[in-house]
């Protein structure tokens, strides 16, 4: 993972959201979310908006905005192979109703579509 250098507003990045294994070293024990830089702070940190765990296309569009230090914001490469795989199904199938949280790509791609980063496959 590469740390973002000279991040700009609107840039798609990856940020740590939850530490599930504090005894591990480095970033090995963290889950990450895809977010968008909304503001660059004077001290070099970034205010990033990222989707909640249950972000979806129907009723839950909740996002979080949080300030991250410059060493905690990483470059993100959109995996178009996964995007093509996910978008081959209708949006309602992107989410598994039996799961408490969506750990797949559905909420990530939904968030990027809603913010104009990716084109909507259903339009």
Features:
123 residues; 27% strand; single chain; 2 helices
Structural commentary:
- The structure is a single chain.
- The protein has 123 residues and is an alpha+beta fold.
- It has helices at residues 80-87, 106-114; strands at 12-19, 30-40, 46-51, 63-68, 74-75.
- Strands 4-3-2-1-5 form a five-stranded antiparallel beta sheet.
- The longest helix has 9 residues, at 106-114.
- The relative contact order is 0.20.
- The model is unreliable at 98-103 (pLDDT under 50).
What is this structure's SSE topology?
Blueprint: E1 12-19, E2 30-40, E3 46-51, E4 63-68, E5 74-75, H1 80-87, H2 106-114
Antiparallel strand pairs: 1-2, 1-5, 2-3, 3-4
Sheet with the most strands: spatial strand order: 4-3-2-1-5
How many structural domains in the coordinates?
1
Which structural category do the helix and sheet elements fall into?
Answer: alpha+beta
- Gyration radius from CA atoms, angstroms: 15 Å
How would you state the average pLDDT, rounded? 80
Summarize the structure.
This protein is of the alpha+beta class.
């Amino acid at each position: 993972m590469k740390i973002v250098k000279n991040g700009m507003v609107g840039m798609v990045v990856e940020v740590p959201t939850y530490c599930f294994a504090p005894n591990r070293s480095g970033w090995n024990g963290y889950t990450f979310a895809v977010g968008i830089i909304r503001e660059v702070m004077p001290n070099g940190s970034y205010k990033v908006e990222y989707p909640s765990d249950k972000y979806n296309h129907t009723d839950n569009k909740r996002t979080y905005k949080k300030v991250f230090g410059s060493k905690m914001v990483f470059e993100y490469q959109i995996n178009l192979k996964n995007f093509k795989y996910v978008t081959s199904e209708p949006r309602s199938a992107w989410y598994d109703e039996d799961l408490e949280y969506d750990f797949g790509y559905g909420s990530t791609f939904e968030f990027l579509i809603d913010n104009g980063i990716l084109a909507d496959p259903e339009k």
